């Protein structure tokens, strides 16, 4: 998968993209991220990329010309790939959206700054607008990294353990079960006995039950949408109402 990022702050990307799983995915050729500096496409001699808003008011707005020039110089005019504008006004980013984007061979991301980008970028260059949550950040760079990270995890072979992505929180509509590693007793706190039993079926049952319980306690909204099987219902009832059993 190829991702072209357009930003005024390209230096923010390499350290994160080179570490750990994303770094390995790029070395393995599963993911190729190219970061482009919008400022390189400003045409005036001071390389200005923002200006005051028409109509007055505070803050600066990113000018349309350098953004169009940057995107079109890399991807052609009009670009033949989805162009996503990161924006708090976009559609909410979820695991389902990450999976949807993970199926694309190529996409472009535009990072805003200041008060945001000139509306004509949104209307005539972007083909999609995505928000990573209902809060406002100073720029689209973290949202772009969030999106790339979540999308990369969905690529086949990106994770060392392919099972990992299947049971992850949100992948199946539920939160994941708790995890434990060595030592078996830490400050007197013990690992649940089931996990030490070696009984695979019992462990799977316990994990499913914990996953259901956590989701019920923390995110009843997710549970309501999850469509539980009869077995799931039974597992949940067992732990939710022990006193009535
Ligand atoms: N004035 C704008 C916010 C600008 S924030 C408004 O009220 O809609 C500056 C830039 O940060 C935005 O252009 C966008 O690229 C990025 N950004 C901020 N919060 C974001 C979020 N929740 N999701 C995605 N991008 C965001």
Descriptive report:
The chain is of the alpha/beta class and 245 residues long. It has ten helices and nine strands. Strands 2-1-6-5-7 form a five-stranded parallel sheet. Strands 3-4 form a two-stranded antiparallel ribbon. Strands 8-9 form a two-stranded antiparallel ribbon. Helix 8 (200-218) packs across helix 10 (230-240). The model has no long low-confidence stretch (mean pLDDT 95). Residues 86-89, 111-113, 115-117, 131-133, 135-137, 139-140, 143 line the site of S-adenosyl-L-homocysteine.
User: What is the radius of gyration computed over CA atoms, rounded to a whole number of angstroms?
Assistant: 23 Å
Strand order of the largest sheet: 2-1-6-5-7
What are the secondary-structure elements, in order, as H or E? EHHEEEHEHEHEHHEEHHH
Percent helix, as a range, is 25-40%
Distance between the termini: 51 Å
Low-confidence stretches: none
* Fraction of residues in β-strands: 15-25%
Structural class: alpha/beta
Q: Provide a count of the helices.
A: 10
Give the rounded overall mean pLDDT.
Answer: 95
Ligands (ions, cofactors included): S-adenosyl-L-homocysteine
Compute the number of strand runs: 9
Shape type: elongated
Label this structure with key terms.
alpha/beta, five-stranded parallel beta sheet, two-stranded antiparallel ribbon, 9 strands, 39% helix, 16% strand, elongated
What's the helix and strand layout?
Blueprint (H helix, E strand, L loop, with lengths): L1 E6 L6 H5 L1 H8 L4 E6 L12 E2 L9 E2 L1 H12 L7 E10 L2 H8 L3 E5 L8 H6 L3 E4 L9 H14 L7 H6 L17 E2 L2 E2 L9 H19 L1 H7 L3 H11 L5
Parallel strand pairs: 1-2, 1-6, 5-6, 5-7
Antiparallel strand pairs: 3-4, 8-9
Bound molecules: S-adenosyl-L-homocysteine (SAH).
